[in-house]
Amino acid sequence: MDFKNTVLYNEHIKLNALMAPFAGWNMPIHYGSIIEETKYTRTAAAAFDICHMGEFIVTEDPSKSTLDETITNPVVKMKPLTCRYGFLLNDNGTPVDDLIVYRMALDKWMIVVNASNIERDAKKIKANLSKEAVFEDISEQTVKIDLQGPKSMEVMKKLVGDSIKKLKYFQFDTFDLLGGKHIISRTGYTGELGYEIYMGADKGVELWKKLLADPLVKPAGLGARDILRLEAGLPLYGDELTESVTPLEAGMEKFLDFEKEFIGREALLKQKKTGVEKKLTGVVIDGRRTPRHTNRVHINNADCGFVTSGVFSPHVNKGIGFMYVDADKAIEGNEVVIKLDKGEVKGIITQPPFIKNTSIKYQEA
Amino acid sequence: MNVKDGYFYSKEHEWVKIDGNKAKVGISDYAQHKLGDITYVDLPPVGKAVKQLEILTGIESVKAASDIYSPMTGKVIAVNKALENAPELVNASPFEDGWIAQLEISNPAETANLMNAAAYKTFLSGLEE
Questions:
Q1: Domain count of chain B?
Q2: H helix or E strand, kind and range, residue A42
Q3: CA-based nearest distance B127→chain A, Å
Q4: CATH assignment of A4-50+141-231, given 3.30.479.30, 3.30.420.40, 3.30.1360.120, 3.60.110.10?
Q5: Each residue of A107-120: pLDDT tens digit?
Q6: What is the ipTM of this complex?
């Protein structure tokens, strides 16, 4: 299989990145050390190439919005220039994808989706939109670079000016940058103060170089991104979210607006009544070993679940992870035994996030 | 990749440094580089007896959990306690501060089954496309 390269591929090579396939793309895993990049993101600011992700634009009359009836996000109730996390579901309530919606205008939304799901998301959303709605997949011509970390506001001020300060968590706007107007949102996947920058693919290299020219900024790869999102307690499609689970089982009810229509609503209302059989929980390992995808979980010698993802957290200084556990046993503080590929370890069921007091909600007057 | 003279190497990228009937064991610079950041080293119990090229213990990195094979037959007489809280020493100093265990060896002639530095360098160059 051939893997696609982002527009920043040559920059990664120049930086001696370790490249590896991810979701059909050749992506930078690290530029020397995953752990160092993870720590750096929580102390300064790191730039991530996220060009592989997909972006759609939907334009339609909000008084008869069919996008609103498609995904779980309350797209008509959202205020312009805000972002909302949510899901595109199957009829049975399992996620086709998780996504973030940006309300760009009263009649215009941008939807940001996972790289591996772009085609099937587009197909499913289009099939559910009215004939009047206009759907555009702008993934190919869009560059997305994330700048994350407590110093990211300082860096962005130098790039776009003090007006960046007005953005609160999960807000966005267009800013003058590199001779054009581009969307910048106060969002991210690290649990820190941070920004996601969207621009035309032709500007990608220029933006990347400009960010890295700032002495506060270092590049970070997908390896660090995975640890950072796990420490922050954020799920990953393919691990915690798959077509074998529902958002209710994943503890994501607050991202489902049952007061409106969305695909999968009936199935989830039914599951709400009957209750869930398994629940997504966090686990902190007693020690430095790493729980890994598909490891079985035991409580009191009974098999009661499986690990969806795990890492060694350099901030907790222990192994951490997510797992699905039988609902009646998914109680914070319960001791679990995780069957690793080699041996086993004890852990404690812990409600994520695994790190607290980060810069995520930082605001300047 | 750094290869140190005076050490013997296995095809699984462990090294052994022999001093009389004692031998320190670790993983090579090539191995630590391939594994990435080391997050955990399972220190074998002192007294454990192991045969040449059998599993001595395990190591974990950000990438995976791997076995460490013993380059020599022997008995564990010491382990590097510093790795308990600082396994990254294996990355920073694979041949010195990142040693894993010290064995009392019974048969020094077993080095015949290992590679010296020059042979290991040739072996590594064959692995890199």
A1: 1
A2: helix A34-43
A3: 17
A4: 3.30.1360.120
A5: 999 999 999 999 99
A6: 0.91
